[in-house]
Every structure is written in structure tokens, then in C-alpha cells.
Fold this sequence. Notes:
By secondary structure, the chain is mainly alpha-helical. It has four helices and four strands, in the order ααββββαα. The chain is elongated and about 125 Å long. The termini are far apart.
Amino acid sequence: xKKFFEEFKTFISKGNVLDMAVGVIVGGAFGTITxxxxxxxxxxxxxxxxxxxxxxxxxITLRAAETNEAGEVVKEAITLGLGTFVGAIINFLVIALxxxxxxxxxNKARTAAENLKKKxxxxxxxxxxxxxxxxxxxxxxxxxxxxxx
Length: 149
């Protein structure tokens, strides 16, 4: 049990958990932004295109609500929420598009960084003097020995 908690402590203290927590928080905020975009910009535009005050008018009522004389609902209405569904699809597409753009930009930046690193490594190798082979070293040693005799 002690080993389990030590492993857990190591896991928690790594940066990955902190990165994940930041990602969840930013993701939640991003979800709020996209929901606002869909609810306040795209949905009204769609409602305007269809000539309705909101996308709820796109819903199809299969059975109207039944009420008694007092105005209380006896049977709930049954509706197909097509407007709500269209809003959810648009929300998904906006999030997917933005995530695609972010991942594409990240991959492009990573590729550029890898190419730069490779270029720097190649330049460093080109600047290094060529190391002599074993045969060349032995030949030099032999020449020095002959000079001393």
C-alpha cells in the first residue's frame, strides 16, 4: 500500500497531471466560448434564414400537450427537437474545426522545430574536423617513432 501511494505521489508530481488539469480548464472555457458562438451568432442566423424567431421553431410536435380545465398539463407534448439537434451538430463542428486548426498548427510548428534541429546538427557535424581513422593514427605514430630513432 505504501508503494502504491509513493507511485501515486510520483505520478501527481509529474508535469503531465498539471498539463492535463490546465487542458481541462481551458477546454471548459473553450466549450463556453463555442456554445456562445453557436447560441448567439450561428443559431440566430439559421433562425433568420428559416424565418423563425429561434431554432425551436424547427422542432416537430408529434403530440401536443394535453391540459385539463385548470390549465395543468395532463400529458406532456412529444416533440422532435430538430432545432436543438442542429445546434448541437453546429457546436460539434465548430469545436472540431478549431481543434483541427490548433493540432495542424502544432504539428507544423513541431515539424519546423525538428527540421531546424536537424539542420543545426548537420551544420555542427560539418564544422567538426574529420576524425582520423585507426590506420591514419597508426601511420602517424609510426612516423613519429621513426623520427625519434
